[in-house]
Specification:
The chain has 61 residues and is low in regular secondary structure. It has one helix and two strands.
Length: 61
């Protein structure tokens, strides 16, 4: 039938390098750090929330 391929569960096998040089921000809703994404390249200075969920649940706005 089908052969099952088992890969290591660590992310290191899929991405052999880390990206420590990417800028980060702290989300004001969940207080977690989030890193720069390519899709935010043009608007990084305007990005405030880490996700759509945090944007919907913004406090006091």
């Amino acid at each position: 039938m089908f052969a099952m391929v088992i890969r290591p569960s660590s992310g290191d096998a899929l991405m052999p390098h880390r990206k420590p040089h990417l800028p980060t921000k702290i989300c004001p809703v969940c207080q977690r750090p989030f890193a720069w994404r390519k899709k935010w390249a043009r608007d990084w200075e305007h990005v405030i929330y880490c996700s759509a969920r945090c944007r919907r649940e913004k406090k006091g706005c």
